[in-house]
Design a protein that fits this description.
alpha/beta; Nucleotidyltransferase, domain 5; five-stranded mixed β-sheet; 5 strands; globular; 42% helix
Length: 217
């Protein structure tokens, strides 16, 4: 397991940023930005992929409770399928991350927090911005920084809840409750049977649609 990095004393606030749903066939791309206070209990805060759904929900509720109390800061950014198809998934990721950071800055407690003395940690190896300069990208950052791990949990749970609720309500025939838009066998078979809906990313399902046309020919 990767060794967690100690906080940098030169920065009093560390904001973690991560996304969920980047590789899905359907549904929005979601990013989260999270600042955790020094006294936040880090137990259970780790890369969302290493947690069970129940564990993610439990930690998510703790983070959001701290945000409601004004000790943690949380921002979430959703980018729609229409935007993903228009600008490509990398640019959509940048948009979602910026939306999440903007929302974090609008948190009622943000004005009482010295955000000028902060470091933004982004999971991965790429981030581009004309607004934010104090940014460091970190590969596998969700295994190294609690704030990034927290952001991965918030992004994942926020997206999963949307797919379990809104997406499945609109299009129950695709089984979004089970796969949440990821490229599972069940999902691919549903696309082969029903075609695509408005929540599918056109470029991502192109090969599946080509195979469907071959079977229909």
């Amino acid at each position: 397991m990767a060794k967690r990095i100690q906080k940098n004393p030169a920065h009093t606030h560390e904001i973690g940023v991560d996304e969920a749903g980047r590789g899905c066939l359907a549904g929005p791309l979601v990013a989260a930005a999270v600042f955790l206070p020094e006294d936040f209990d880090p137990s259970g805060v780790r890369d969302s992929k290493l947690l069970t759904p129940r564990q993610r929900e439990t930690v998510f509720e703790r983070i959001m409770s701290a945000s409601a109390e004004g000790t943690a800061l949380v921002g979430v950014g959703f980018v729609s399928v229409e935007v993903i198809d228009k600008v490509n998934v990398l640019q959509a990721t940048m948009r979602a991350m910026h939306l999440a950071l903007h929302e974090l800055e609008q948190h009622p407690s943000a004005r009482n927090t010295a955000l000028g003395q902060h470091q933004i940690f982004v999971d991965g190896n790429y981030f581009r911005s004309d607004e934010y300069v104090n940014v460091k990208t970190i590969v596998r950052g969700d295994q190294l920084h609690d704030c990034i791990a927290a952001a991965s949990i918030v992004a994942k749970v926020s997206r999963d809840r949307w797919m379990l609720g809104e997406a499945d309500k609109q299009f129950p025939e695709y089984g979004f409750k089970q796969h949440k838009g990821y490229a599972t066998k069940q999902h691919r078979e549903a696309i082969m049977k029903h075609g695509i809906c408005s929540l599918h990313r056109a470029l991502f399902v192109r090969n599946i649609l080509e195979k469907r046309r071959m079977y229909e020919a």
